[in-house]
Write a structure and sequence with these properties.
The protein is an alpha+beta fold. It has helices at 17-30, 47-61, 79-89, 155-169, 175-186, 212-223, 239-250, 265-273, 275-280, 314-318, 330-346, 352-356, 360-380; strands spanning 7-16, 35-40, 65-71, 92-96, 111-114, 118-122, 147-153, 197-204, 227-232, 254-260, 284-288, 297-300, 304-308, 322-328, 348-349. The protein has two domains: 11-186, Endonuclease Chain A (Endonuclease, Chain A, 2-Layer Sandwich), CATH 3.30.870; 197-380, Endonuclease Chain A (Endonuclease, Chain A, 2-Layer Sandwich). Helix 1 runs parallel beside helix 2, helix 6 (212-223) runs parallel beside helix 7 and helix 8 (265-273) packs across helix 13. The two termini are 19 Å apart.
């Protein structure tokens, strides 16, 4: 596993929902002078996405080098139209892993870098906040609950290196060139001694970083002393993370899980199959119904926080390419914690006594869902998912 290295001298601004993210992203694109790199899973065909597209096209027309990576699945059925629009404006666009030519992995990362001076990382796709992301464009009652981080400072160069490498790997590289690129990616990240927010880019791929994100969570949970609040829309982690949550709660840490529900019934049933053991160990579980919860964030104790793209499921932890940022800064963690505490207030806490009274067929449904999901994930991850 690649060593997790923090860089100093970073300014990290938390962006809550697309309202703040897109305005900040488009402002950066409009002021770009040399280069824009954008990588995303979903690139929708709605008004918000079209605004981003127009900003990218305008930048390319004024001479900025613009490179866009879109996942082939996440681009849905309008990628050809989008690519044509990009091509006419001079925007370069590549689709990640079309027709599964390179296996099952998808790029689930949400990254952008502007002029190697400013970066964006988090869980927000290029899609309208008020529309569902399941392809049906169902209106949401409130903006999608999600986060991103606007980063300036030393970490930007590390993010730029990862997105640039992704772009190169998707092109036609000879074997020797690919080997040289792999060596470049092994070089340690930039680090300085000046003080500001400490931050680290944590990625997951199927080479050197197969379990980097999971181990970062486990290390933080293992050293937690007071509180741990974790939010995620798809909860189906392997045994290691479940045990990490349980052990933290058993030694007195106040552990709270804020989970999105209602998106996929099978996913909900799988998550609920874990509830009895987690609740019995003292983990508090909250289900969020107010709108679509898409955030993959956590705050542990008073200064450790993470925002990113990685779900707590088999696909994110063992198959897809993901990217999170870890920020060690009391002010940043405090701001994110306020949002999480509001999320807990807006959610419904799961009552352990209600689980005891569950009907036998509900319990049976949960177990069947669990065994089905585990079997599929073990096949997809070649036995890595436990």
């Amino acid at each position: 596993m690649a060593k997790l290295v923090f860089s100093d001298n970073n300014q990290c601004q938390l962006l809550h929902t697309g309202e703040h993210f897109f305005s900040s992203l488009i402002e950066a694109i409009d002021h770009a002078q040399q280069e824009i790199l954008l990588e995303t899973y979903i690139y929708a065909n709605d008004a918000t996405a079209q605004t981003v597209t127009q900003a990218l096209c305008n930048a390319a027309k004024r001479g900025v080098c613009v490179q866009v990576i879109i996942d082939w699945i996440g681009g849905a059925n309008h990628t050809q139209q989008l690519q044509t629009q990009f091509q006419q404006a001079g925007v370069q666009c590549r689709l990640f892993n079309p027709w599964f030519k390179r296996g099952l992995a998808r790029t689930h990362r949400k990254l952008a870098v502007v002029d190697q001076a400013l970066a964006f990382i988090g869980g927000i796709n290029i899609i309208d906040d008020y529309l569902s992301d399941d392809g049906k464009n169902t209106p949401l009652p409130h903006p999608r609950w999600d986060f991103a981080v606007r980063v300036s400072g030393n970490l930007v160069l590390n993010i730029h290196k990862e997105v640039s490498a992704q772009w190169l790997k998707m092109g036609k590289l000879q074997l020797l060139q690919r080997l040289k690129l792999a060596v470049t990616l092994r070089l340690p990240p930039v680090s300085t001694s000046s003080h500001s927010s400490q931050a680290a880019l944590v990625i997951r791929d199927n080479l050197r970083n197969r379990s980097t994100i999971q181990k970062a969570y486990l290390k933080a949970l293992g050293s937690a002393k007071h509180t741990a609040i974790l939010a995620n829309p798809y909860f189906a982690p392997g045994r290691k993370i479940r045990n990490g949550l349980i052990k933290a709660a058993q030694r007195g840490v106040d552990v709270s899980l804020l989970l999105g529900v209602g998106d996929f019934h099978l996913q909900d049933a799988v998550a609920q199959s874990y509830y009895p053991k987690l609740l019995a160990s003292g983990v508090k579980i909250y289900e969020y119904h107010r709108t679509k919860l898409h955030a993959k964030v956590a705050v542990i104790d008073h200064d450790w926080a993470t925002v990113g793209s990685s779900n707590f499921d088999g696909l994110s932890l063992f198959v897809n390419q993901e990217a999170n940022i870890i920020v060690v800064d009391q002010a940043f963690a405090g701001q994110l914690k306020q949002h999480l505490q509001q999320g807990l207030q807006d959610a419904v806490r799961v009552d352990p006594n209600c689980l005891v009274r569950l009907s036998w067929h509900r319990r049976f449904k949960h177990r069947v869902a669990y065994w089905f999901y585990r079997t599929i994930m073990r096949i997809a991850t070649l036995g890595q998912y436990r």
